[in-house]
Each structure stands twice: as C-alpha cells, then as structure tokens.
Amino acid sequence: MSFEAALKEFEAIVARLEQGEVELEDSIALYERGQALKAHCEEKLKAAEGRLEKIVLGVAGPALGGKMETA
After folding, report:
1. Helix boundaries (H) for 1-71
2. Angle of helix 24-64 relative to helix 3-19, nearest 10 degrees?
3. Is residue 60 within 8 Å of residue 22, measured between CB atoms?
4. What is the dihedral of CA 15, 17, 19, 24, to 10 degrees?
C-alpha cells in the first residue's frame, strides 16, 4: 500500500472516530486499523528518509571526507 493511500485511509478513520457515532466494537477495530496504518506510514517515511540520506551523503560525502565535525 502506498504512503498516500495509507494516509488517506488513516485520515478517514480519524474522522469517523472523532464524530463519536461509531459503536464500541467498531471503534476498537478502527483504532487497531489506524495503529497499523500509522506504523505503515512511519515505516514508509523512515525508508524514504534513508533513501534521501544516501542521496545527500553520496553527493556531499566525498567533499566532507565522510566525517562530520562537532564544535
């Protein structure tokens, strides 16, 4: 599932839960699905972040000598 599709479904779940018109058992099921979608989105974001880091470090790495100095 793409990040965008997961986020859209997550937002729909949040909206339904915020309305407060969902029965308890359905609320629990929606909450569980929301948690799974949240984890999926976080995983996708972390993977994208890792890919971007590789791109940035690949470009800047040799110029910096691969080391970051701290003050």
Report:
1. 3-19, 24-64
2. 140
3. no
4. 160
Quote the CA–CA distance of 10 and 13 in Å, as a whole number.
5
CB atoms within 10 A of CB 36: 13
The answer to whether 65 and 26 have CB atoms below 8 angstroms apart is no
For residue 67, name the pLDDT band (cuts at 50, 70, 90).
low
* Identity at 50, one-letter amino acid code: G
Q: Give the global pTM.
A: 0.72
Domain ranges, ordered by start, for the chain = 3-60
Alpha-carbon dihedral 8, 12, 13, 15, rounded to 10 degrees: 140
